[in-house]
Amino acid sequence: MMATPKPEEIDELYARLGSEARAGGYHLNPDEEFTRDLTEALLTNTKRYGYQSCPCRLADGVRDKDLDIICPCDYRDPDLAEFGACYCALYVSGEIARGEREAEQIPERRKKPSEKEVSSEGGSGREGEREKNPEGATGRLSDGEKELDYPVWRCPVCGYLCAREHPPEKCPICKADKDRFKRFM
Fold first, then answer.
1. 105 assigned to some structural domain
2. What is 78-147 written as a DSSP string?
3. Residues 31 and 89 placed together within one structural domain of the fold
4. What secondary structure letter does DSSP report for 161?
5. Order of strands, sheet of 161-163, starting from the edge strand that comes earlier in the sequence
6. What is the CATH number of the domain that holds 159?
7. Backbone angles phi, psi at 2, to 5 degrees
8. Among 128, 167, 165, residue whose Cα is nearest residue 149
9. Residue of 28, 32, 33, 55 whose CA lies nearest to 42
10. φ, ψ for residue 162 (rounded to 5)?
11. Does residue 35 share a domain with residue 87?
């Protein structure tokens, strides 16, 4: 039987999430009881799976398959922009945080594994996936463009880009782990 998170663990994660949110320009849900319940669920999932899986989604239990729903998930920013809150409502817009707007129900953006785009380069999970930019480019060079000295890595949570041999251990913007980065170019 799995141990329930201790109050001091919840307090510590709650404080860290709040600090990281503020540092990144984000807001935690102002309903402290609700947010602490989500914090406890994140801790439970960390103990269960070994990573902070979104408490409002069914995790596979395999990190490589759940990279997109490790909090903060890949869908946080699109949900915030469109609906004012992320799927589980841990993160909310400034309007909601100030009480000027109410959170609304957010539709699920996550695709089933069978619906995820995987390139013909093979591989499973995120390996071999190609991120498309809004203009539809695949990140491949077209004729006449100079080959880059280093690959470009993109954080799927915040969009941070870096050109280096390997992605950083943690995203300097949103603190997403190295394995969440996708090769962009």
1. no
2. HHHHHHSB-TTSSEE-HHHHTTSS--------PPPGGGS---TT--STTTT--PPPTT---SPPPTTPPP
3. yes
4. E
5. 161-163, 152-154, 182-183
6. 2.20.28.10
7. -80, 140
8. 165
9. 55
10. -145, 145
11. yes
Task: In whole angstroms, give the CA distance from residue 153 to residue 77.
Answer: 18
- State how far the Cα of 23 lies from the Cα of 110, in Å rounded to an integer: 27
What pTM value is reported for the model? 0.72
How far, in Å, CA of 182 to CA of 64, rounded? 12
Q: Which residues face 4 on adjacent strands?
A: none
Paired with 162 in beta bridges are 153
CA nearest 25: which of 114, 93, 105? 93
Give a yes or no: residue 91 inside a domain.
yes
Question: Domain of 39?
Answer: 7-97
- pLDDT tens, 86-140? 999 999 999 999 999 998 899 999 987 656 554 333 333 444 343 444 434 444 5
Q: What is the pLDDT of residues 34-74, one digit of tens each?
A: 999 999 999 999 999 999 999 999 999 999 999 999 999 99
How many domains does the chain divide into? 2
Q: Is residue 118 part of a domain?
A: no
